[in-house]
Design goal:
The complex is a heterodimer of chains A (about 240) and B (about 250). With about 240 residues, chain A is an all-alpha fold. Chain A has helices at about 1-15, 20-55, 60-70, 75-85, 100-135, 140-150, 155-170, 170-180, 190-200, 200-235. Classes of the chains: A mainly alpha (about 240), B alpha/beta (about 250).
């Protein structure tokens, strides 16, 4: 107990003093996860919307497959990407292994199904309400897609935040493809895992506290954003 | 039946038929729609009124027959107002701007149309309000404002006053009259016979998917030619088909 309290005190000092190592790890974590979420949104929001708006053979299979991918174990994703980008893999020539780019790819694979599934659900509900009206305006699929994405923005923000939650808390995939290399690919979750295994609890606890704070701040911001949007849109 | 509309027709329906999975909802309807004034489509539930309106709006594709828009010129333009208005999650003026965006107008013309539609529908004071916070009557006026801003050849109204109070209904009817007076053809589906009498110049009476009367409103309401129309106007229910007694 005494050891834990001492570690907690040290963790507090690391945060307050804005320790360089801590800041570097936090910055890389945010960079990797925010990029992965941004890429996932760029692909997943229109993809989910198209799945919601269109009917074609195999659509249900795609939806079931996507939903199943939401539960992908991160270590399996990490392993698959490791095999793909390692020197002997099909994408080995790009030299991505143990780089932040590899970690972004891994997190994108994990986040994309979540964003796609939540976007599909949000847009499907909205499309049921809007479809006749938008068609009566003579809008093509592009125009209808833009309208639905904009009007569904509060629900879609939630999808993005859910994706961010998955990305920033993930450890299994990024440790395999990133390698947890100091000053190169060390992020909060991999650092916590490493420092805990070494018995260096202070840094682990400092990063854990920051991780929790980021998670809380994200959720508070989402809540405020949704509340504001609801007031303005009555959505 | 091809009605000899004595005004210049805007479009012609020729053998228009729509069959859903299990039933023919509209059966071989032929008629000419006048280029101005209000045409009321009336008939009992299931007569095919809304199906006809949705075919005119291009929301359904006819199973057989055709709608000849060539009389309206090359650019056919319809605008539809639904029984329950679909209000986008944005401000009142942004709703109107969204409706006219596909027309590719320049900014000055778009702004002018927004102003005009807001004025006609008496929504100026709510210009920047969140549209979904409007009352039911205001929302239906917004739906009309969006439709009128498109300057349609044909304004299609599907029971626009079905869930409105008398005051809101009067406001909607005033806007419809104004649109019809401004040379817009209006096609109005309504269950409200008094409303059809107040607004319509022409009446199309549908029964079980068939157009069985199409005449001037005055003549129709003074002396309907068919037993079905007489029964409908008198509020007499159709006889129950054998085997349906218990349903």
């Amino acid at each position: 107990m005494q050891e834990a309290l001492e570690a907690l005190g040290l963790a507090g000092r690391l945060i307050v003093s804005m320790d360089g190592d801590v800041l570097e790890i936090v910055a890389l974590s945010l960079q990797v996860s925010l990029t992965a979420v941004a890429v996932s949104c760029l692909i997943g929001l229109p993809l989910g919307a198209l799945l919601a708006m269109t009917r074609f053979r195999g659509r249900n299979v795609l939806i079931v497959l996507n939903n199943a991918l939401m539960g992908l174990p991160p270590v399996v994703v990490g392993l698959a990407i490791y095999l793909a980008i390692s020197r002997a893999g099909p994408f080995g020539v790009f030299g991505l292994l143990y780089t932040p780019t590899a970690m972004i790819i891994a997190q994108t694979v994990l986040v994309l199904p979540i964003v796609t599934a939540l976007a599909r659900q949000t847009i499907e509900d909205l499309n049921a309400e809007y479809d006749d009206y938008l068609r009566s305006l003579g809008l093509g699929i592009g125009g209808r897609l833009r309208t639905l994405l904009w009007d569904g923005r509060t629900g879609l923000i939630t999808a993005a935040i859910a994706g961010m939650g998955r990305a920033i808390a993930e450890v299994g995939a990024v440790i395999i493809v990133g390698g947890n290399i100091d000053h190169v690919t060390r992020v909060m979750t991999t650092a916590i895992a490493l420092e805990t295994s070494k018995g260096e609890l202070a840094l682990a606890m400092a990063l854990g506290i920051i991780l929790m704070a980021i998670s809380l701040a994200l959720n508070a911001a989402t809540h405020a954003l949704r509340g504001d949007a609801m007031r303005r849109m009555y959505a | 039946m091809l009605d000899p509309a004595d005004e210049a027709p805007l479009l012609e329906l020729r053998g228009l038929t729509y069959t859903a999975t299990t039933a023919t909802l509209l059966d071989d309807v032929s008629a000419a729609l006048p280029a101005t004034g209000v045409t009321a489509i009336i008939g009992a539930n299931g007569a095919g009124k809304t199906t006809l309106l949705r075919l005119l709006a291009g929301l359904l594709t006819p199973t057989a027959g055709e709608i000849d828009w060539s009389l309206a010129g090359s650019a056919r333009r319809t605008a539809m107002v639904f029984q329950r208005p679909v209000i986008l999650r944005r401000s009142v003026d942004a709703n109107i701007r969204h409706a006219i965006a596909p027309l590719g107008l320049n900014e000055a013309e778009a702004a002018r149309r927004v102003d005009e539609a807001l004025a006609v529908c008496r929504l100026d004071h709510l210009r920047t309000a969140p549209a979904r916070r409007l009352s039911g009557g205001e929302q239906q006026r917004l739906a009309l404002a969006r439709a009128l801003a498109r300057k349609p050849d044909v304004l299609l109204l599907d029971e626009p006053c079905a869930s409105l109070d008398p005051q809101s209904t009067a406001a909607i009817e005033a806007i419809v009259r104004q649109a019809a007076a401004a040379s817009t053809a209006v096609v109005l589906v309504t269950h409200d016979i008094a409303q059809a009498q107040r607004l319509a110049a022409w009446v199309m009476f549908l029964d079980a998917g068939r157009l069985i009367e199409h005449s001037r409103a005055g003549a129709f309401f003074a002396g309907p030619q068919t037993a079905e129309a007489r029964d409908y106007l008198a509020g007499r229910l159709p006889p129950i088909a054998p085997g349906d007694e218990g349903s």
